[in-house]
Specification:
The chain is an all-alpha fold. It has helices spanning 3-6, 20-29, 35-42, 46-60, 65-74.
Length: 78
């Protein structure tokens, strides 16, 4: 599946697909960085990243960074 089509595939745990920005956030969660570091890299505030992380967790049906990364791998987003 091409990268362009991947974002349109709904997650297995939610009918709502991840937005492009949520996929960017998810890809950064795989790294050993803080929310502040992600925010700085993306030129947004920590609170913006925190909100986007919560949205990713909700859509994936997880509650931890490790679970989000594992779920992304499981459904082919990583």
């Amino acid at each position: 599946m091409t990268m362009e089509l991947q974002h349109m595939v709904p997650t297995q745990r939610s009918a709502e697909p991840l937005t492009r920005r949520e996929r960017v956030i998810l890809s950064n969660l795989d790294e050993d960085v803080t929310l502040e570091e992600i925010a700085s890299k993306l030129f947004v505030t920590r609170n913006t990243v925190k909100s986007q992380v919560r949205s990713v967790y909700k859509k994936l049906g997880v509650s931890t960074r490790a679970d989000a990364v594992a779920c992304a791998r499981e459904i082919g987003l990583r």
